[in-house]
């Protein structure tokens, strides 16, 4: 009986925030849909401004659960600029929580509404979210030979032309680093050797295309590149070997006590534009990431493990930045579920929103 209660309570740690985040999606999408219809008669710049504001409400609610609810400590090494900038955000990739880390940094600049993602093509099939991310300026890409460079460049150039604020998140590794998937790691290292590049041990060899197109297509619009390295505390086993990073459910179940974020701002004028030199620059950045991760997991000084070199400071997120969004979206959602017509509208939003989204994102990428 007691064991059953403990297990049930543990599962609620994940199911409660998951239910709220998914449950408020239809109300959020309806709010955005109304604005989308009204925006057909207003300038594109005004549409983007309001779209970013609406998006910031939902993402702030998400951060209520990933920061305030979990109580995770975010340790930042380096200085995050206080003012908003148009940037490309480059990070190592270990788990689905990496997407949330970008939001964590953006909200500390007041730029969470500007976050847009470069996503794997398969994610466009996510119900509701897949379509909306595309509408919000996200870019879906395929790997290797199927990568559509022209489509990505066109979309980013269009957004730059209308002055859309940009916080474009890219994970150049292309897939997650998972210590249990040794074949992926070995293939990545073999590719580096073949290309005459340094072999990386704690991250994968970065792919160049998406990052280079992003910087080149928006060169007149960007201020900087944010080079971010993320490590999750508690991902080393008793033998000192690295384990997989936490999944979103594990993170929401409070299984990660601290997230360490090494932040470095690189002025856009200091980044080479020619593809060959850009490739070398990007690999050198990832070599530095690899050294940071090596120090985090394998420092010879036990007191320096589970931290990055240099001085880190705890960056707490105020409830004032997240709780109002939770209350607002909850206030929109609950009344919908209390009446039969509201429940019908709620269900139709899920069903038709998903079907229309799937069609739209494939016809109008």
Characterization of the model:
The protein has helices at residues 2-23, 25-38, 44-69, 98-107, 129-135, 149-161, 182-194, 209-217, 248-252, 275-298, 323-338, 340-363; strands spanning 73-77, 87-91, 115-120, 139-141, 167-170, 224-232, 258-267, 312-314. It has 365 residues and is of the alpha/beta class. Mean pLDDT is 86; it is low at 1-8. The chain is built from twelve helices and eight strands.
In short:
By secondary structure, the protein is an alpha/beta fold.
List keywords for this structure.
single chain, 365 residues, globular
Q: How do the helices and strands line up, and which of them pair or pack?
A:
Layout (H helix, E strand, L loop, with lengths): L1 H22 L1 H14 L5 H26 L3 E5 L9 E5 L6 H10 L7 E6 L8 H7 L3 E3 L7 H13 L5 E4 L11 H13 L14 H9 L6 E9 L15 H5 L5 E10 L7 H24 L13 E3 L8 H16 L1 H24 L2
Parallel strand pairs: 1-7, 2-5, 2-6, 3-4, 3-5
Antiparallel strand pairs: 1-8, 6-7
Helix pairs in contact: 2-3, 2-12, 3-4, 3-11, 5-12, 6-8, 11-12
The strand order across the widest sheet is: 4-3-5-2-6-7-1-8
Q: What is the element string, with H for helices and E for strands?
A: HHHEEHEHEHEHHEHEHEHH
Q: What is the number of helical segments per DSSP (H or I, 4+ residues)? A: 12
What general outline do the C-alpha atoms trace?
A: globular
Strand content: 5-15%
